[in-house]
């Protein structure tokens, strides 16, 4: 088995790779979720990822497209959507009920992923009052997430001069996530992109009159709604 990554983690990764504003979409038009991309995202070898993808195919959760890319079948997609919903609700349990910060919640939620049954997750959802989003702005309901994708852009893709509101934070890079919180680059924050210089790895944003230079990686991990 691929270095401790579960079927659910693979499905979640393929899910994120499949959408235009998925967490892992590279700049530009996006590339299909190939074994190599999946391996890169999970930090495993291509061989491990290839092996797991074969297993997912055998289980009817994934099928290969024309370019050998991994596509979720209906069953795979249903399960992946359940995994992301669960993750987002557990994060809210951690922040709203257990007092973790948004920066901490993602990693802790990954540790708890397999702990709760579907029935427990429904109870958590009810007790928390059916939260709409995880602490990092990702909609709990995957249908809402997918519909909203069309309205968002990574900050790195905007034209300089554009005003925007931060809606979601990329959360799979723990260091970057902590940095977003340290910088108060959090959901709901309004900003203006003043300068974009990918060649120099520098994007300058204005936050309430305060000017800040951020890296391209950070700009690519802030999903914003241009106003
Ligand atoms: Zn989150």
Task: Characterize the structure shown.
The protein has 227 residues and is of the alpha+beta class. The chain has three domains: 7-72, Orthogonal Bundle (Arc Repressor Mutant, subunit A); 85-149, Winged helix-like DNA-binding domain superfamily/Winged helix DNA-binding domain (Arc Repressor Mutant, subunit A, Orthogonal Bundle); 153-226, Ferrous iron transport protein A (FeoA) (SH3 type barrels, Roll), CATH 2.30.30. It has helices at residues 7-18, 35-42, 46-58, 74-97, 102-112, 118-127, 142-149, 174-182, 216-220; strands spanning 62-64, 70-72, 153-154, 163-169, 190-197, 202-207, 210-214, 222-226. It has a six-stranded antiparallel β-sheet. It starts with 6 loop residues before the first helix and ends with a strand. The site of zinc ion (ZN) has 8 residues, from α4.
Primary descriptors:
single chain; 227 residues; alpha+beta; Arc Repressor Mutant, subunit A; SH3 type barrels; six-stranded antiparallel beta sheet; globular
Please describe the topology of this protein.
Elements: H1 7-18, H2 35-42, H3 46-58, E1 62-64, E2 70-72, H4 74-97, H5 102-112, H6 118-127, H7 142-149, E3 153-154, E4 163-169, H8 174-182, E5 190-197, E6 202-207, E7 210-214, H9 216-220, E8 222-226
């Amino acid at each position: 088995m691929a270095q401790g990554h579960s079927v659910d983690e693979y499905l979640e990764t393929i899910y994120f790779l499949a959408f235009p504003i998925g967490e892992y979409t590279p700049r530009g038009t996006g590339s299909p979720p190939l074994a190599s991309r999946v391996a890169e995202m999970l930090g495993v070898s291509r061989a491990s990822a290839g092996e797991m993808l074969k297993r997912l195919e055998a289980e009817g959760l994934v099928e290969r497209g024309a370019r050998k890319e991994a596509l979720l079948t209906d069953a795979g997609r249903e399960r992946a959507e359940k995994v992301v919903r669960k993750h987002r609700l557990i994060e809210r349990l951690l922040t709203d009920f257990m007092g973790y910060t948004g920066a901490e919640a993602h990693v802790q939620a990954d540790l708890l992923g397999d702990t709760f049954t579907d029935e427990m997750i429904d109870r958590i959802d009810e007790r928390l009052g059916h939260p709409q989003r995880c602490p990092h702005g990702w909609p709990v309901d995957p249908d809402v997430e997918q519909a909203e994708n069309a309205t968002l852009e990574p900050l790195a893709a905007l034209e300089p001069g554009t005003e925007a509101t931060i809606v979601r934070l990329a959360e799979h890079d723990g260091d970057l996530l902590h940095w977003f919180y340290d910088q108060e680059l959090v959901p709901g924050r309004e900003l203006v992109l003043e300068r974009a210089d990918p060649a120099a790895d520098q994007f300058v944003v204005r936050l309430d009159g305060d000017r800040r230079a951020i890296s391209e990686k950070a700009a690519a991990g802030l999903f914003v709604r241009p106003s």
